Amino acid sequence: MAEVLATEGAKELRFRDPAQARALSAALGRVVAEIGRAPVSVMHVCGSHEQSIAKFGLRAILPRDLNVIMGPGCPVCVTDIPEVDEAVVLAQDGVRIATYGDMLKVPGSMKSLADAQTEGAKVDVVYSAAQAADLARDTTEEIVFFASGFETTAVATAAVVLGDPPPNFSVLSAHKYIPPVMEIVAEMPGTKVEGFLAAGHAATITGSAIFERFVERHQIPVVVAGFEPLDILGGLVKLVELVRDRSPRVENMYPRCVTAEGNRNAQAQMWKVFRTVGGQWRGIAHVPNGNLRLRDEFAHVDARKRHHIDVRRLWSRSPSTLTQVCICGNIMAGIASPQECPLFGKECIPETPVGACMVSSEGTCKIWHQYGGHPDL
Amino acid sequence: MCLGVPGRVIEVHGQTATVDFFGVRRETRLDVVDEPVEPGDYILNHVGFAIRKIPAHEIQETLALYDLLLKEAAGDMMAADVRGEIVATRQQGGTDG
Predict the structure, then answer these.
(1) Which domain holds residue B83?
(2) Which of A149, A228, A263 sits opposite B65 (nearest CB)?
(3) Which stretch, A5-14, A184-193, B44-53, has highest mean pLDDT?
(4) What pLDDT was estimated at residue A220?
(5) What are the C-alpha distances in Å from A123 to residues A80, A93, A115, B81?
(6) Which terminus of chain B, N or C, has less C-beta within 10 A?
(7) Is residue B95 part of a domain?
(8) Mean pLDDT of all residues in A355-369
């Protein structure tokens, strides 16, 4: 099994160094066999990890008894319905919304920003917070940047807020903070996660040491890994070794981009602008300290303080029945795979997504829909 | 949004730098990176901001993934995300390369 590689099975298995990939695959097989239980389940929390795993067909060369699950690693997917509703209400009220492309089709309680746009609301797609501020500089209209993403994009939003944005610019923050949700997932009944693969670029900001407290509390190892297929395989080998040795600790397998202390300058800017508050992550749970909101000192840039946003007017009708069938939440909690959803690839496709996991390029369902999830051998 | 893009610094002007991303020259902001950046350095760019200077001796490993992805057709999702990251940087004043 471990020797099956590169030429067969997965449709797109290409490695920079096939010999190294073969060695890592063999090592994974060996270590998982030494653990002697099945299955061994580990979780990553990053859409880019899932893209790489699916695109390069890595699951085809994983040992059968190793289960690599994507957890709540798609910030767009965990944006809660009332947060989308806030943006929709603002757009309906004539405010111009600037947001990342993936946020357009995320369903709110009644409609998405794309629906509001079709009905005449002004919604602009931007690639960065800086572009949203530029948009505000070119107009007298009120511009609200509907900001989503984890630490990596929160830092960019913070830098723009600190960079003296124009007076008609404000931020509707749906930014989320990853470390607290790992605690929630680790404690969920039904999830048997024995190790976490932490996302390389978010850890570039936070540093790998941020996971020490989590490891201490939950006795679950955390390995920081990069995104190249070999980085991921190398990270998984280290992770299952730590599981085998019952040696819960933090290992940084991506030192070329991640240090223990992280980017202190970026952290300072992020925490100057944001504070953590508890909030609902769509489909997952209430996550204490999981949401990043602007501090009171930045009320003048906070769309929630500058505008009266009454989302209740959207809540007069009940959500569609399809939405109630959607199992996005279970998929993001790691207790179901997209193929277990009756809507996957049928009623729910990227063009007409039912759940947020089919909207974003970082959502498990959209990634599996494009690349396939578990290649058959 | 989770995957940053590495690029080579061409020029530094104050808090911004002109950076070559696989043949595309864009402006990246330097407010967030925690080390001084000079022409010739490689940085990891995330939504328009450099977040890390990548050690020179490790750059080839980092570039390999992107070399591969940028050869992909427009419809490939992961490649599209990488291209989006490059577009997230600012164009140079009218002379986007």
Answers:
(1) 5-87
(2) A228
(3) B44-53
(4) 96
(5) 19, 12, 10, 20
(6) C
(7) no
(8) 91
- Alpha-carbon distance A41 to A95, whole Å? 46
Q: Does domain A81-177+299-314 have CATH number 3.40.50.150?
A: no
Q: Which residue has the higher pLDDT, A157 or A359?
A: A157
Please say if the pLDDT value at position A142 is more than 60. Answer: yes
For residue B94, being part of any structural domain is answered with: no
> Rounded to an integer, what distance in angstroms lies between the CA atom of residue A206 and that of residue A201?
9
Q: What is the pTM of this model?
A: 0.89
Question: Nearest CA to A249 among A258, A239, A259, A257?
Answer: A239
pLDDT at B95 over 80: no
Q: Provide the number of structural domains found in chain B.
A: 1
Give contacts of A201 with chain B, Cβ < 8 Å. Answer: 2-4, 44, 46, 51
Size of chain B, expressed as the number of residues it contains: 97
Q: What count of CB pairs under 8 Å joins A to B? A: 133
Report CA Rg, chain A: 21
Q: According to the 3-state scheme, what is the secondary structure of B46-83?
A: ECCEEEEEECHHHHHHHHHHHHHHCCCCCCCHHHHHHH
Task: Name every residue whose Cβ is closer than 8 Å to that of residue A85 and which is 6 or more positions away in sequence.
Answer: A108, A109, A110, A311, A314, A315
CA dihedral A263, A103, A310, A290 (to 10 degrees): -40
In one-letter notation, the amino acid at residue A368 is W
Inspect the interface and report whether the beta carbons of B51 and A149 lie closer than 8 Å.
no
Please say if the pLDDT value at position A128 is more than 70.
Answer: yes
Q: What is the ipTM of this complex?
A: 0.86
pLDDT at A349 over 90: yes
pLDDT tens for each residue of B19-61: 999 999 999 999 999 999 999 999 999 989 999 999 888 888 7
Closest by Cα among A70, A7, A8, A68 to A42: A68
The amino acid at B82: V
Can you give the CATH number for the domain in which B46 is found?
2.30.30.140
Question: Does residue B34 lie in a domain region?
Answer: yes
Chain B: closest CA distance from residue A38 (Å): 31
User: Cβ of A266 and B55 within 8 Å?
Assistant: no
